[in-house]
Model the fold of this input.
Amino acid sequence: MDIREFAQEFQDNVDTASEMGNNDYDTELASAILEYLEDNGEVNNPEICTFQKTRTRITAYDYNVEAESLDLFYLVKAETLLGKVNNSKVQQGFNYLMSFYREAMNGTLLKSVNIENTDEVAEVAKLVQSTKGAINQLRIYVITNGLTDPSCVPASVESEYNDFIIEYNVWDMQRVYQQHNIRAGKEKVEIDFQAEYNTELQCLKMSEENPFVDAYMAIIPGVTLAKIYKKYQQILLEKNVRTFLQFKGKVNKGIRKTLREEPDMFFSYNNGISTTASEIDVKEEDGSLYITRLYDWQIVNGGQTTASIAASMSDREVDLSKVFVPMKVSVIRDAENGEAIVKAISTTANSQTSIKNSDFSANEPYLIDLEKFSRSEWVPNGKDRPICKWYFERTRGQYLDQLAQLSGFNEKSFKIEYPKSQKITKTDIAKYEASWNLQPYNVCRGAEKNYSLFVADIKRERPLVTANYFKHIIARGILFNTIDSIVKSKKLGGYKANMNTYLMAAISFLSNKSLDLTYIWENQRVQQDVIDKIEELIPVVWNHLVGSTSTGSQSSNVGEWSKKPECWNRLMKTKLVEYDKFGEGLMQAETNDDGTYLNDAQQSRIQEAESIEANYWFGLANWAKSRDLLNPLERKAAFNFGTMRSRNRPFKTLKQALFALKIVEKADELGYQG
Done:
């Protein structure tokens, strides 16, 4: 597929997504381009926020606290397919974004425009102001579906008061196409040290012959390593069992401390990086050996070191010219078993620094099981032959990666079987589950923080992933997306993400977490009564989140208020308690493990157990205890069933009812008369 074919397909996908989702075309276009930036690992979690006035505009933003980076994006649309975007338009885009930053920072952004404090752009303006003194770099991005001249990108400069670096970037269709090809394996990481980086790496080759690998030890300048990572980003680390954790952990903070305070000691302090390659070019000069080129280069251990150094390129306190990194290169000779060898090297090398369970790698059984059901469970459509599934992306970029490997009929079939609108990620699931479990305040703390908390819950509870479990997760996703669509249609102006999670939690609360999710899965839509309730709750939740501080309902900062458990507890105890809970008709009927509803015989057994009166159970418990009959568990259960029936509570599950009937049968055999 050449770049024109790719661009046409890219445009067709944006058109389709816009029509199916009833979304603005520009929003879909920007989202599609930003997805490739995320896939590349260059940005963290950009969010769309369109705003414009005469000389000030923005399309999206991203604030990465750990990386101390604020990113602003502006979309420039090409007039034709792969149309040329001239340098003046790119520069104009940079100017728009810098004007947005300055006006947000000095408080003049919203003057002379009809913007309320509850509009999303007002929240972004507050966010920008909050970054004062907290960022090392302001990254300005022009994104476009056209083509640009690489020379139009200015060099990085220091800010007015020399407190951070301003970095300019352009992502056009050539850059997007390159990322597509890297994902498809059509563009390998090939490093020409002489031509691209004006250096050669002096090395030592292990003399012992090995039929599997050739091993080299070398030293790579920190500047060179940083530049290579900046170009290829996460592609360099694809075979690494971990990904870059920014400067969160003690190890990465230690790396930054060394880079800032003792860069000339970095070589002595750091264990270096372990890498693999499929081929190597070396030359001998004056008795020394030099690496000049590496093919299909991968960093299998040392991703934290590499990305930390790259992140320090814009740090004024770091002199990278003094930084050198030990590097081991294993050139795979056994191509047939190359993947297995690389995996073994990666796993063994990373064992030097233990990988904690809290890292929750993509190879966790929980995620693998979700992926398995994602690839096997067809979406019901009321016909004999379902045509599509929900795609769970176990590893970042997996959907694009798989799609990039296909072409022609296979590519079209994949898109039909797995529509992009039915792709969900790990952070999506964490968002659905936290909302459903009445923790909307965690969702408001951000995708990454919420995901880490979700991981802790999964580690502790170890849920069994079945087909039914997977279907119910998707059903909660459908409910969340329905809420999102309704909130979006109200055009409230801001805080949509906060509204979504709080409304989801409200629906969960009003259904005692027992909404009929099987109905949602089987019909791929939410019950009308639930939709009506969402509509009814929107003004209640909105006023609770953004109501005046004089009512004592919130802090002055909506974003911070929504992150507090008190925010949810107050909504639940003062507002939601006034609403009737959902009726039985909307509650989840018990199902078998395969998700099918209980048949008549199974329902009959439950009814049989419920027909036994409380006095029978109390009498049975006393009789068995006085004669030391039945086992302690059965005697305790008999008493509990008596308490349950005396309060007119039903049997919760078929399993519980069958256990009760088994006790009755056993007691009858032992002579209990009732």
About this structure: The first strand starts at residue 47 and ends at 53.
